[in-house]
Every structure is written in C-alpha cells, then in structure tokens.
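Protein modeling request. Please complete all fields; requests missing the sequence field cannot be processed.
Requester role: graduate student
Desired output: 3D structure, token encoding
Chains: 1
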Amino acid sequence: MSDKKPTITTHMARMAMNNDPEIRTWVEQWLKNREREKYLATGAGEDTFDNHWLYVKPETMHEGAVEGYTAYVEQSRKK
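Delivered output (79 residues):
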C-alpha cells in the first residue's frame, strides 16, 4: 500500500464545499484570514477590508478551493 496521499482536485474541493456547509464555512474563513493578512500588509486599513473581501471573495474562493480544502483535511486529521 502506498503512503502517497490522493491528489485533491478543484472539482473535489468545490464539491466538498458545496455539499457540506461546515467545510465551506471553514475554508471561507481560512481564505478570508489569509487574504486579510495580505491586504493589511499593503498598508490598507482593517476598516476597508470587508468591502475588499466582498470584491475578491468569488475569485478567491474558486482559486483557493484546493489549498483551503487541503488545509481543512489536514486540520481534521490532527483532531
């Protein structure tokens, strides 16, 4: 048996998020926190982040699906 982890595809990650609101909420918060760090590092203020997030959320959720879902799976294994 191989120790290699199965590859998570964008389709797998998106399906998991679409079928389980808990996963979607976790991944969205993880991606939002990561985006907040990048946004604040540019010198922008916390007070404008929520508006920024509304603008970038759809693309960030799509592009970050695999990375966010992978982080969710990893933290779930640690529990």
